[in-house]
Design brief:
Blueprint: H1 5-10, H2 19-79, E1 92-93, E2 112-115, E3 123-130, E4 145-149, H3 154-157, E5 162-166, E6 175-183, E7 187-195
Parallel strand pairs: 1-3
Antiparallel strand pairs: 2-3, 3-6, 4-5, 6-7
Length: about 200
């Protein structure tokens, strides 16, 4: 005679009851933790991509500061007025400031604001330095200026110019325009241009 279903069920060892449930719960916990880690990882990637976007936006806006500084210089050059003295209110300095470091420079007090907020939270400021050692005329005693001078040599043969650095040199000196952009999420970018 065959044993009944009740007899077969009671014949199982007691230690095997509920093991499948415990294994299923452990697997569920492991899968939940893996899902949370993947979510956190993808969220970090999105934040990094967002920060890179803010940095690129701030760097491209650095050109606005450079262009505003260039427009200031071109206004004086077109009028034929030499820029021999400092004009701090316009962010212009007639000497190169040997200790100039954009990272430690006092941008709040010694620069010109090109735009306070461009609509995306970026503030653009600039400063202009004439590449001369001291304030005054390029021919002043003790003066040294970076002035393009044509002469013999490889650069002159190719239609270029050799920058001259010396006392008593005449001509239009080079200018250094440095632009700083402060943006959202503490983004800071610098753009620096040397122009003639």
């Amino acid at each position: 005679m065959k044993p009944s279903i009740r007899q077969r069920a009671s014949a199982r060892p007691a230690s095997q009851r509920g093991v499948v449930l415990i294994v299923a719960l452990v697997v569920l916990v492991v899968m939940t933790l893996a899902g949370l880690l993947m979510f956190r990882s993808s969220r970090t990637g999105v934040e990094v991509a967002g920060n890179i976007g803010f940095k690129q936006n701030a760097t491209s806006l650095g050109d606005l500061g450079v262009e505003t500084g260039r427009a200031f210089l071109m206004g004086f050059v077109s009028d034929g007025n030499p820029l021999l003295d400092d004009i701090p209110a316009s962010g212009y300095y007639a000497s190169w400031n040997e200790g100039f470091n954009p990272l430690s420079y006092d941008w709040d007090e010694a620069s010109k604001e090109a735009i306070a907020d461009d609509g995306t939270g970026n503030r653009v400021r600039y400063v202009i330095h004439r590449l001369c050692k001291v304030v005054g005329a390029t021919t002043a005693p003790g003066q040294q200026c970076a002035i393009p001078s044509t002469g013999s040599g490889a650069a002159a043969d190719k239609g270029g110019s050799n920058p001259g650095l010396g006392a008593g040199t005449t001509g239009q000196p080079y200018y250094r325009i440095t632009s700083r952009v402060d943006g959202p999420r503490s983004t800071v970018s610098y753009v620096q241009v040397i122009m003639f």
